[in-house]
């Protein structure tokens, strides 16, 4: 339960600094916590990345203040770190779908995020099929994007996947998928102060894409079917809320890997989805 306790303490940290621009990378490194590991676990337990959670909570608190109607909009926005009023109005509309001035009228319909609470529930019956196997390191070729840790969210991962699919890059990558792992691989790592996302395939052939190599090790592989954006996130929640505590296993979360197999579009109910989680040495 140590991991859960740390996440709870970090939620308290966010709540205490809700109005500030938190440098999550710096805070986690000061705590001697590897950012990729923490963001994976936090997102799985809470349902949002630390940045997303802070923004949702910030918008919720602003909505409460606007509904109360005791202070001017410009004063509220400045208190919560928005010094450009037009940018604040845009952010508020993106969060709730309305103008800040319409808050009182539509307050009861707003998708507010209260301070998070969650329950870790060990279960006897596994929700997802899983196998353990030793996997030797292998080469991945693909397209890479790097993101700031402070603003990274899982939504960016699937936006990138969708972009590559729409522009036929996935189709081109699959032509080089001659390694022993078949399908599209999503590999997330923390490198050089950035979150690195590679989307590619296992390949042995020369190809006009970036390349990297995975680490050899023992993995637990969880498998299901459905829309990858929905299924993979539910698998991660299952791993960190249930499986991990039932099995009492330590995981190496410094990187994570997903494998998607599909006969057609990758964002479909027919996709086969695997989450590969490496066991700690």
TrEMBL record:
Name of this protein: HTH araC/xylS-type domain-containing protein
Domain spans labelled HTH araC/xylS-type: 8-106
UniProt keyword terms in alphabetical order: DNA-binding, Transcription, Transcription regulation
Signal peptide extent: none
Short name of any one Pfam family annotated for the protein: HTH_18
Matches recorded under InterPro entries: Homeodomain-like_sf, HTH_AraC, MarA-like, Reg_factor_effector_dom_sf
Keyword Transcription regulation in annotation: yes
Superkingdom of source: Bacteria
SUPFAM superfamilies: Homeodomain-like
Lineage of origin: Bacteria, Bacillati, Bacillota, Bacilli, Bacillales
């Amino acid at each position: 339960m140590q991991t859960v306790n740390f996440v709870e303490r970090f939620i308290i940290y966010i709540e205490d600094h809700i109005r500030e621009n938190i440098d999550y990378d710096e805070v986690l490194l000061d705590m001697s916590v590897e950012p990729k590991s923490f963001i994976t676990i936090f997102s799985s337990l809470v349902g949002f990345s630390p940045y997303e959670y802070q923004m949702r909570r910030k918008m919720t608190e602003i909505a409460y203040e606007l509904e109360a109607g005791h202070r001017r909009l410009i004063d509220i926005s400045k208190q919560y770190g928005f010094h450009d009023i037009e940018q604040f109005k845009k952010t508020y509309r993106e969060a709730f779908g309305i103008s800040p001035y319409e808050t009182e009228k539509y307050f009861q319909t707003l998708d507010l995020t209260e301070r998070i609470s969650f329950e870790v529930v060990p279960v006897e019956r596994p929700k997802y099929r899983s196998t353990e196997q030793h996997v030797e390191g292998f080469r991945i070729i693909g397209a890479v994007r790097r993101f700031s840790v402070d603003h990274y969210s899982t939504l960016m991962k699937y936006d990138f996947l969708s972009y590559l699919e729409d522009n036929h890059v996935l189709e081109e990558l699959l032509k080089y998928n001659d390694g022993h792992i078949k399908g599209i691989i999503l590999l997330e790592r923390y490198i050089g102060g950035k979150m690195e996302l590679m989307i590619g395939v296992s390949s042995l052939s020369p190809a006009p894409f970036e390349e990297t190599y995975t680490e050899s090790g023992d993995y637990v592989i969880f498998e299901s079917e459905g829309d990858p954006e929905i299924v993979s996130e539910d698998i991660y929640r299952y791993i960190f809320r249930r499986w991990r505590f039932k099995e009492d296993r330590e995981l190496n979360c410094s990187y994570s890997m997903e494998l998607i197999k599909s006969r057609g579009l990758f964002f479909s109910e027919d996709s086969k989805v695997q989450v590969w989680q490496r066991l700690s040495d």
